[in-house]
Amino acid sequence: MTLSTDLSTGEIAELASLCAEELFNDDRAERFPQILLKRPTIFVLERTARRVVGACFGSVAVRDGSLIGYVDLLIVRRKDQRKGIGRELLGRIEERFRAAGCSKMQFKGNPPHYLWPGIDINYISAICLAEDLGYSRTGCAVNMIPHLSRDALYTQKEETQLRKMGISVRRAGQKDTELVERSLAPVWETDWVREAMAALASSEAGLQIATTGDRCIGFCANGINRVEDTGPMGIDMPFRNRGIGSVLLKRCVAEQIDSGVAIVNLQWTGPISFFSRALQATIKRTFWVYELELD
Questions:
Q1: Contacts of 39 (CB under 8 A, 6+ apart)
Q2: Looking at residues 214-219, what average pLDDT do you find?
Q3: What is the residue range of 200's domain?
Q4: What is the reported pTM?
């Protein structure tokens, strides 16, 4: 596996410029290379004598005992598309996944540091390429945006009711690291635990938690990869339907708005009905998940 540190500063800058130019449905896409470089990354570049014209980034993770390869970013300059560059880049990443022992590869988010849940349906060239190469569509994910005013995000009344039930809600700090990890690890999937810990470790992110006794029974993160992103969030099953999730979510969104975020992005949401009720949220973007068996 080639480590991300093998990319030169100049190449990272070129990739940032390429993302900003070509990813028309993403604001401030120049941040994307740095997001993916927060962890070991497989990458291949296509360049002319003057500049980078295409790139493919991937990562590997264990899922249910099997190694899975994730296509985190595939980009080709529009003027250079339909020349086989995307196909070549994806093929070279596939070779590296096979060499690493991956059983399949996916166009899907690989938390904690990822860009999208899948392929944005507006990036039609990527969808066409995946389907032409035999990838199967295996799922759909959405991002949503809230439409509540700042005043509607106040949760003092709800928090008072929760305190009567012995439940406290607050922003977590570094001192809560052991509490959060100990409480979440037996209940939630590893990816969500990693994201919660990443939120605690970042000065730009935040983590709202609900506690009772010496347990964290609910959490909601924001800003892990981008300051406008909210998620993941979860409430332990025995404590659901008490309004905890709504309070955590509203506190996260309020914090983001107060920090200057203009449009909050509810990342990879579900169930949709909860976010619609809690924040009057609507679907902003839709992503298709694609998969290719490698064995």
A1: 4, 59, 113
A2: 97
A3: 148-279
A4: 0.93
What pLDDT score does 7 carry? 84
Report whether pLDDT(1) > 70: no
CB under 8 A, 24+ apart: contacts of 4-13 = 4/36, 4/37, 4/39, 4/40, 4/41, 4/43, 7/33, 7/37, 7/43, 11/45, 11/52, 12/37
pLDDT digits (tens, 9 = 90+) for 43-94: 999 988 888 999 999 999 999 899 999 999 999 999 999 999 999 999 999 9
Q: Is 84 in the same domain as 16?
A: yes
Which token pair is 254?
């309020």
Closest CA to 110 of 97, 92, 91: 97
Structural tokens at position 231: 């998620």
What is the per-residue burial (b if ≥16 Cβ within 10 Å, else e) of 97-135? beeeebbbbbbbbbbbbbbbbbbbeebebbbebbeeeeb
Q: Are 52 and 46 spatial neighbours (Cβ–Cβ below 8 Å)?
A: yes
CATH number of the domain to which 53 belongs: 3.40.630.30
